[in-house]
Model the fold of this input.
Amino acid sequence: MRLTPRRRGLIALVVFTPLAYLYSVCATDLVINLLLRVRGGNYFGCRGGAVTLMDRFNGCGGTAYHTGYAVIELLAFTMVFAAAAYGLARWIVLPVRQVADTVARFGPNALGLRLHAAGPRDETRQLADAIDAMLDRLAEGYEAQRRFASNASHELRTPLATQRALIEVSLSQALTPDQLELLSRQLLATNERNEKLVDGLLTLAETERGLMATNYLRLDRIVGDVVEVHRRTAAEREVQLHPTLVPVTVIGEEPLLDRLAGNLVFNAIKYNAPGGWVRVDVAADATLTVINSGPAVPPEAVAGLFEPFRRLSGERLDHGGGVGLGLTIARSIVAAHGGAIEAEANPGGGLCVRARLRAVPLRADG
Done:
């Protein structure tokens, strides 16, 4: 039978009760007799028979009992009682100390460490199970950071290697004006991609830290401006935009909400097909919905699209102008605003993404 803190407490109570009674009797007798002796009197007086501690204290049995002995015995009783109480207390909380020791050993090099408590589901078992669940989340966070750092390094290393190769080519031989222009354009495109990647990483870091300043913002107006900015891109890719914007006010940071809408609309246009369409809706409950036509998306692959540098095609590099952080940044922005985001595959192809923010009453000044 496992001794839980509750059972240990009951056992300690059974052991501690007689000890406490004995200590209280002895301590009371010693203190009262000590006080009376200092004042020149006796409390119990002399008794016949065997000479007890209190008889000696009262001067019975033919032996004078000095007052200092009583003080020493009182201190000795107190120390023994305190030591017993302290030992019982440590014995009761021993399972909690074991839990603390296990948690203290958890770290990047011991991500698999768990308590795996057994026995009845008492308070200690509930605490252990909750800590195991917390350690699972921490381990997942550690692994996510490792993957992110590895992927980010790869994403930066590849275009940097491309830049280096282009520069080495330009230095190894004389280039014609056309070759020089082509080389310059390739370097510019690689540099722009690196710039977007660094900007995306900075946005993720900022949103993880939380909102720095908040204002009352019209979500429909922000999304409407984003749609107008992307109309030219949509026309070039032969994709039709269909916005439906209901006036609604939210509290947040305008640049982040602008980035949220821009990422969702750009992705919907980018992962589409000529002749396709994109619906952008803002509802009265501050839900931004972006639905697009396009290639079929496997339902089991939808959740992974929110992970950094995760692309449906499986390619490391994105040749469509993105850096693989669009939905990751969108999720981080929505979380910073206290909302939730979800996606689902459309039966006819494409994706539906819903970002639910928190609406506030529409202000009179608009």
